[in-house]
Records
---
Amino acid sequence: MKRAILALTIASLGAGVGITGATPADAAPAAYCASGNICVYNGFNFTGSTTPSWKCGVIDNIGSRWGSDQVRSFINNQTGHVVATFYNWNGSNWIPIGYSQAYDSRPYAPASFYNVPDGVDGIKPC
Ligand SMILES: [Ca+2]
């Protein structure tokens, strides 16, 4: 039991160091999203870690590489006023839960996108 508590404490300390000890290389430029992409962030105001999606007609499973239910802000920097669709994976199907028409920049994503199991797991950029 003592060992388990110690391991938990070390893990917690490690997480704290990761948050407070970010190097310049870890810090993404604020609100940068390359043209043609929709970029989601796990922090509000385009902070935290980010991942881009860009392939039209394909649901990009961001949950598999970046995480699920944590889209707190996003920038849709695509062209031509295309509409991106945000999806939740309900265990057997992709369910659309939100849309964004380019250009669109949301420092605060809808509350239904994060911290809930039905939050965003995938994005079809266009
Ligand atoms: Ca989800």
---
Amino acid sequence: MLSMVFELLTVSTLAVTCAAHWAPRPTPGPQHPAADHVTYTTVKGFFLQDEDTTVPATFDYTAQNFGLINRTYPTDNKCDRSFTQWQKFEHYVDTLNKRGGKNVDYKVLFLGRHGEGYHNVAESYYGTPAWNCYWSLLDGNGTSVWADAHITPNGVAQAEKAANYWASRITLQKIPLPESYYTSPLTRCLETASLTFSKLPLPRKQPFIPTVKEFFREGISGHTCDRRSSKTYIHNSFPTYKFERGFSEQDLLFEEDFAEQSIDQDIRSKIVLDDVFGSDENTWLSVTSHSGEIASLLRGKFSLHSSGEMGGMLIKDLVLGHQDFRLSTGAVIPVLVKAETIKGDAPVTSTVAWSSISTCSTVPPLPTAT
Ligand SMILES: *[C@@H]1O[C@H](CO)[C@@H](O)[C@H](O)[C@H]1NC(C)=O
Ligand SMILES: *[C@@H]1O[C@H](CO)[C@@H](O)[C@H](O)[C@H]1NC(C)=O
């Protein structure tokens, strides 16, 4: 049962005792029976980004058909000779779903990172150590604001590049377009999703109406760029966007001076995947999120060594099991995901206390030019 799975540990050795500093409690999960759980795997062999030989840092999704590998599929004989690679892939995935049985579900996730935000610029300007210990805790520096950062003109250009690339794939490849859209509640993602999709020639039945989901937000680290704005602000700025059920008016998760742990982030990434897979019958989904959160969604085996009072925790295949793939700002990665419903409770995974972040008491010097 989910409630058992996320039972909190008592960690007596840590100074942090305030309940508010524990990782967020999950919202009720997907619609499969409580005694079952879902495992996710990245199905390899279809996208270059899944190949161990692909180098994320230099990979350009716009030079490579989003990374879709040129190959044949066992279902090609049912395809018209004029079909593009993406159309053949679409037919293959549809067939997988038709033949997969009721416990298996395939979806293709287009995971997009937001365009460059003012916080990205400030982190480069001040250098990561000074950013982490001092500047990131402030809303801005008087000339630049990075609390719930907006995207910069460069970030706008990156989102427009993504939009243009989608447009070219529509024309040249007849790419299957997202049937559902999801976004992080942070402003840089709300803006990026809008710039990427709102002007595309989308099918009437698949309009761009994203759902704002709390757990697609970035890892929460005490940095003001990880603190979201109110639901009212989001609604007023993006009136066509929908909110998931239970989305709170205020940000209830951000904690000044405390950082969510990777394991907690992976647990909530699993929760949001369960939520999406458990409630959305569509196959082609777009998610606009963040570098750290997409890395968490893609993470393979994550293990935390047993350490004294923390107890032994081993989380296997919690999320998608993809190779590490850090996206540059504005980049998109498609992933073919196989979800399997397994009888019985999931292996127990436990959240851990958020850690306090270390801060500098004085203004750190600017990095010296090298
Ligand atoms: C697939 O083949 C086409 C032409 O045959 C080529 O232009 C394209 O770069 C190839 N894509 C990949 C991902 O290898
Ligand atoms: C504030 O930070 C930006 C970079 O994010 C920098 O360009 C600007 O000069 C800084 N302003 C002040 C007053 O230091």
---
Amino acid sequence: MKSIKVIALIFVSVVVGAVVTFGVMYLMNNKTVDMIRNNEELFIPELIDVSSLDEDFIITADKTEFEFVEGFKTDVLSYNEQGYLGKTFKMRKGDTFNPILMNNLDEATTLHWHGLETNGMSDGAAEPNARVYPGEEKTYNLEISQAAATIWYHPHALGTTASQAYKGLAGMIIIEDEYSDSLDLPDIYGVNDIPLVLQAKKFDENGNLAYGHHGMMGGTGMMNRSNMMGMMFEDGDGSNQSTTSGFTIMSNGFYIPYKEVRSEVIRLRLLNGSNHGIMDISTDTNDKINVIATDVGFLENSQEKDFMEIAAGERYEILIDLTSKEIGDEVNIIANGQQVLTLKINDDTDDDFDKPFTTNMISTLAPILMYEEYTGQATTNTFVLDNDQINGKQFSMNTIDETFTKNQIYYLEIDNISNKHHSFHPHNARFLIVEIDGEKVDPKDFGWKDTVYVREGHKVKVQVMFKHTGLFMYHCHILSHEERGMMGRFEVID
Ligand SMILES: [Cu+2]
């Protein structure tokens, strides 16, 4: 009888403890969200036009401070001491860009150009000498040979990718070409062509970014703030690696900022720059989303949607037609049910402007040509995604896991046999989706991709050609999965 009482007491204690713990966590998260600065003007990173640079450009990786919560300086990282994130680079097909990374951090870092087809020495990941140590610098030699797209840059050093990206190291790159020139698209940067880096973040009560403390109990067995937040972030067993549930979605570092726009067609360049999570994007006014570009290029025809999904690492360019709006109207962009940007219509911002088109006038964009007509017969390399490993292996810097020949057509079959969702990203690649779960699909529906989200138990086959030689990485773009070993190296040979 006594032992039953003891068991009952322990049971009650555990339940009460759990309720209190989760209650405190819930309140803390809500309280913190209330404290985050909001309703400020959308921050637009400075645009650096690479074509007009007459000297080498230095990109510094810096320890900076940022006021997510008014009056609290939060330690973050940024490029070129911007405060948070980095500048936007505009490049043209045919450009050569030789940026120099200067590492002002306390730990190694690299620059990886996500979505750029480039040589292995400049890809910033798999080469043995890719790491740039504190106080050192490295020059990257980038030859821009690919079609117009919205791509991005972020660190890719082994062991520090996830934490550095989470703390703010990321920036956008806009590539232009003859197609983007000829299309009558909104292209005034920061006015009707707007970069929007969406990131799921979690803050503690002082506005600090909560990240990566593994496990519920610290060394003393006591619950303290940092390990409690760590447990909230840790996505090892929970479902939150596929959603942003419990996180606050920030837009270019700000919470629900606004942007004054004219009653015209607005182009948003969306990047899901989160460490994990898929976002469902829509408007609160039921205004349609016209998708014009996927990760690495224009669609052949724009796709009108009520909502769209964007996974961590992916980019989509979308148009929203505001031509019928009146001054004072507002349209909110919604991500996973949360307001992330308020577009405020205010034509007074400019006395005179053209309303050059409406979205139904630009349905034809750029042709998507397969590398070859899909037969499914060519060489297929299979990537089996399981928990924390690919093809039964965890990452090793001493192994070359796959070898491809330059300018040959390959099929990559990505087979997710795990009980989690994963996001597969091979570097130096621009691929087309040809099969899902063994069924042929039309690649034009998905457009040019460099990252593909594969749900648990599903299988995707893509057609790819590698155009540059060297050593590269493939990995899961859920960055905690990557850090836990879901990554491999491949070599492209002549
Ligand atoms: Cu993964």
---
Amino acid sequence: MHDVIVVGGGPAGSSCAYWLADAGWDVVVVEKKHFPRVKTCGDGLTPRAVRQLADMGLEDALAGSHKYSGLRAYGFGQSIEMQWPEHPNFPNYGYTITRHDLDGLVAERAVKAGAALLAGTEVVAPIIAEAGSPSSSPTGSLPQLKGVTIKEKAGTGNGSGGERELRARYVVIADGANSRVGRMLGTNRRRDLPLGMALRGYYTSDRHDDPFIESHLDIRDAEGNVVPGYGWIFPMGDGRVNVGVGLLSTDRRWKGVNTSHLMDAFVNWAPDSWGLSPETSLGPPTGGKLPMGLSVGPRAGANVLLAGDAAGTINPFNGEGIAYGYETGRLAAAALGHALSGEGPRALADYDRQIDAAYGPYYKVARAFVRMISNPQAMKLCVGVGMRSEFIMSQLLRIMANLMRPDAPGPAEIGFRAMELISRLLPDEVAALEAVTSEAFSARAS
Ligand SMILES: Cc1cc2nc3c(=O)[nH]c(=O)nc-3n(C[C@H](O)[C@H](O)[C@H](O)COP(=O)(O)OP(=O)(O)OC[C@H]3O[C@@H](n4cnc5c(N)ncnc54)[C@H](O)[C@@H]3O)c2cc1C
């Protein structure tokens, strides 16, 4: 009988295990793959993610990775370079590092702090303590668990490859975007909230150590028409760049878009200086889903919590999920520390409320924003106006990377506050805003 079982050893699971082990609790992480393992990602760490890694004592371990200083945005023929802002709580730089290297580092750190890691072991089912069907409402609760049933890959552990039960007082579900285990407990994603879909591949490039990561706000098809989506080129510092395209479900046209064609068109269209071509490609791209904006629930039960992508915690403004995995894993660990110290299930309900308080209002604005810019005319207007002013774009960067300053409210903070007040007056789905802007822009266009 462990104190806590963590399902999944990605950013959310490993950070949760690290903070629990660091506090002296008996925690076991069950991870179906062996580290190092490949994970499809843009490999970009923002200052928020770097802060979490530094807090886990891992910044020195990033020394060999590519340190970069800001973002270059491209849109409608213009480009702007923006340094990460100065902030009292976050550094003014980020890193790029493959998940192959990063996730193993954090899992190893959790083990050094005292966590047990069962790698090459899959959670095949939760063991539900009570009779009765699991909740199916995002606002309901999760069933009580006794533990999980695990299956070791042949050649792992005792090599039996058989199934066995693992028991714990508390269970954290951090099994990522597909969250099979979460869904077995009855979690579901709100389909009215945005979902991202992205594809990435690696290329060799002379600009592999560029000091800026690059984001393309208008990407084109083979005929040069703007298509719904965005593109990125992230220098990796090791001879490679990570190149990707993403789409949001808020754009009704996304269902008709073939992401592989979109990727080919982006590679064709990207600035020549990156040297992207089929010849410099290091292999076919791979893709994945980005559950965002707190779209998945319920997040808590009497002895179960969800963290990271399993809870849909990706930031809709920029598709960043690693930092939010670390942060929600850490919040889950703190709540479980209280629960194990005697507070019991009340502490888990507090976790649910803390997530809402920490990200709810911000993500509500983000969801409204992505819905609005999913309208092609609105997107063109916003990007067109923004790209003419370095000042506007640098304020937007602070908002979109969640790096606003609590201590020194400036234009970004004041602008965001205004957006937050407006979004509070609107129904959560802001369908009304979307409808109004769509109609207004369609009318203008015609
Ligand atoms: C194409 C793409 C590009 C992205 N780019 C970026 C980026 O540049 N920066 C950024 O911050 N975010 C990015 N993201 C988002 C980011 O990858 C995720 O938000 C992040 O990985 C979430 O961490 P997690 O720990 O919740 O889940 P994951 O990283 O998915 O970890 C879940 C872990 O659980 C394990 N697992 C799953 N099921 C089981 C099971 N049944 N039993 C045992 N183990 C299990 C998996 O093997 C995995 O190791 C990108 C996503 C995609 C798809």
